[in-house]
Amino acid sequence: MKRVLTSLAAGVPLAAAIFLPTGVAADTGSPVTGPFTCSSVSVKAPSGTTVESVTAQRREAGTVTVPEVTPLPSIEIPGVPAHCAVTVTLTHPGVGDHAKVQVWLPEASWTGRFQAVGGSAFAAGDYGAALAGAIKTGYAAATTDAGVGTYIDTTWALNSAGEVNTELLKNFADRSQHEMTVVAKQVIAAVYGKPASYSYWNGCSTGGRQGYMEAQRHPGDYDGILATAPAINWTSSRSPPCGRRWS
After folding, report:
1. β-bridge mates for residue 129, sequence order
2. Quick one: which of 86, 149, 165, 226 is 20 to 30 A from 98 by CA?
3. Average pLDDT per run of 10 along the chain, which is 247 residues long?
């Protein structure tokens, strides 16, 4: 990995958009020069997975509505550029999981860079706020739900026998983030006709922890990692959430 940028400082509120500095995005390394294709994309399944489905949808420029996900209300993000939204669903044969990968690709003014965004609390990924923010600053962006639950849903953590669901725990810990990265890079190359010139991870809280896991276990995935307020010590009642500092 060329650069690892980590910070223990608190980031932004839970599940709000978190972005790399706009100055980084403005440093264009590989602007779009070829045809932009938002159609069926061929995805090679990452090792150990099967691709269940791939969909691609072109979305007009305008306001993105992020749905209500307990405990957070719905929000609207204006000024989101026209983009291609590709959804790839992966499964690990014999496990019965269904991990959804979302890749948003701006139709114009792509900087040639890729930004992956992490989750918050018990959610492994983003519901649209950080994805929208990333493509507004010229990145192609991706996230994954890892096939688990929402911010405060932990029902997935135990199987029907009341034992730890180790396969979903692997997804939540780091497996799905790495597989999302592999898939997203393929999608970016297919849609733009060339690969991203630089790849970045951006996450806070659970997303910060995921960033640390990426740096440790998959150092070749990203050129830079912004991992703020990593949710590592889950047993501590003194850990501040993103966007807050203890006085």
Report:
1. none
2. 226
3. 38 36 41 70 95 96 94 94 97 96 96 97 95 97 96 93 96 97 97 96 96 96 95 65 45
